[in-house]
Design goal:
By secondary structure, the protein is an alpha+beta fold. The chain has 5 helices and 2 strands. It has a two-stranded antiparallel ribbon with strand order 1-2.
Length: 98
């Protein structure tokens, strides 16, 4: 069964300029959004001392395995297409579990 969350607990994809128009209420939506949001959004949610993806996966969705994977991606400190590729590999695993 897919865990769905309300808008207030959903993941809202943003960039430094604001909201991208993409929201994830469950792991399936999250996986799809990860594939299509601008790379700037991926970088924004992994900026500086932030890992919004890890926090949402662990805290809201209770998915410590995927949260740990996102933590490893952040530690690589990659950007651009390399970041998109790493996240796309993870999003495929997330989609399979959803």
């Amino acid at each position: 069964m897919i865990k769905n969350v309300s808008n207030d607990k959903a993941f809202w994809f943003c960039t430094s300029s604001g909201f991208t128009g993409k929201i994830a209420h469950n792991l399936s939506e999250f996986s799809e959004c990860l594939k299509t949001v601008p790379v700037e959004s991926l970088e924004f949610h992994l900026r500086d001392n932030k890992n919004d993806f890890e926090a949402w996966l662990k805290g809201t969705m209770d998915e410590p395995k995927f949260a740990a994977s996102m933590k490893r991606i952040k530690k690589k400190n990659i950007r651009g297409d390399a970041l998109r590729d790493s996240i796309n590999r993870l999003s495929k695993k997330i989609a399979k579990s959803a």
